[in-house]
Amino acid sequence: MSHPRLNRRAFLHQGLALGCSAAALPLLTHATFAAAPIDHRIVVVILRGAMDGLDIIRPAGDPLLRQLRPKIAAEEGIPLGDFWQLHPRLGDLMPLWRAGELGFVQAVSTPYRDQRSHFDGQDLLEAGIGMDAPAGFRRDGWLNRLLAGLPGAKSETAFAIGREALPILSGAAPVHRWQPETTLALSAQGRRLLEQLYEGDMPFHIAAATALELTGQPLPLLPDEEEDLPLAAPPPVLPGAIKSDPEVGAFARFAAAQMREETRIVALSLPGWDSHAGQAGAILRPMARLSQLILTLRAELGPVWQKTAFMAMTEFGRTVRENGSAGTDHGTGGAMVTAGGAIRGGAVLGTWPGLSEDALYAGRDLMPTGDVRSVAGWVIHALTGAEKSRLSSEIFPGLDLGPNPGIV
Question: Where are the transmembrane segments (predicted)?
């Protein structure tokens, strides 16, 4: 007996009449969804370039902040209580904060120290290891090791999304990978046929629409349709954002479409956080992209958002003092951004070390008082049921989980 989805896939794989190959539509070629091993969703975002956590979530109650950062911290932030302030350009996230769906963890880092290399720092972050970990653990990522121990996990369970490599999902456990393809060579008739083929199959219809959007060529109207088509609503404008990024929007919509079905783990990265000069302006675009990603995921996931834990982490923090170019250099302690209905938001977690000279790491950086792996480990423990012993031996080898920070 024929199956409509198999027929659609066969059509795409043959490439008949469309003028493109199946490889041009990687988002349409994933396998039939399988039973999901867990009910919650986990999104991990790597903020490449070393996000300045002291700028995103500011310790405004510490009188030394403005002395150490007279230009970067000159503009008043958005109060989050008596001590903390959110960056003034992240006001669009405040509804999530008030709803308990946005939180932060301050003064955290990986075990990486002193060498200050983006590449090495990201390698350790994605491998989930310390600097002295056995070489074997450097070959795969901690999310992949988590997948390997989830009963019933299939390749559909996890997606690596984006154009960059994501070692955090590399390893023995199979995963799906997707990146937007912007060079689809579809004729007008081919695009119309593709839309009609997937009209009654919502997950694939969404994926097809995303693929068409990424071509940058609007779907042409047939002559007899022009007067009957209702006017489309204008795209939403995100408050505080410089400009919506179409690629970030595509990432979020595609991720949400999969997470509404059988995908449970998504990883992607957002670059651009290296702010050595003119940080007050340089940090705006990556902040806007992060905000857009969170808000689009929340809107697209619908009720699934309440089962979602979003964690954004970076390879290391930045120096406490601004430099002569009104920027910051590579540091140590930083911050994590958390969101979703599955996390306990509306709070800034972590032990604050202070900004006094004797409280800094190496006299220049925010002192780390927590480990990003521990935060992620407690989230994983709560949402997947992974045993603490496995977290400390297999997923994050050598990690002392420490006390529960109360993030979930």
Answer: none
The helix (run of H) or strand (run of E) holding residue 41 is strand 41-47
In this prediction the pTM is 0.79
Q: pLDDT tens across 136-155, in order?
A: 666 799 999 999 999 999 99
Closest CA to 269 of 373, 175, 162: 162
Tally of domains within the chain: 1
In a domain, 326, yes or no: yes
Does any domain span residue 249?
Answer: no
pLDDT one-digit tens code per residue, 32-85: 333 478 999 999 999 999 999 999 999 999 999 999 999 999 999 999 999 999
Give me 174's structure tokens.
């199979």
Render pLDDT for 391-400 as a digit per residue (tens, 0 to 9). Answer: 999 999 999 9
Residue type, 30: H
As a whole number of angstroms, the distance between CA 330 and CA 118 comes to 9
The enclosing domain of 138 has a CATH number of 3.40.720
352: nearest Cα among 64, 117, 135, 59: 59
- HSE-CB for 274 with a 13 A CA cutoff: 9
CA dist 380 and 385 (Å) reads 7
User: Model confidence over 92-123: pLDDT tens digits?
Assistant: 999 999 999 999 999 999 999 999 999 999 99
Separation between Cα atoms, residue 297 and residue 308, nearest integer Å: 10
- Please indicate, yes or no, if residue 360 is contained in any of the structural domains: yes
Q: In terms of residues, how long is the chain?
A: 408
The answer to whether position 194 is within a domain reads no
d(CA 54, CA 92): 19
Structural domain span for residue 77: 40-178+263-395
* Alpha-carbon dihedral 107, 109, 113, 115, rounded to 10 degrees: -110
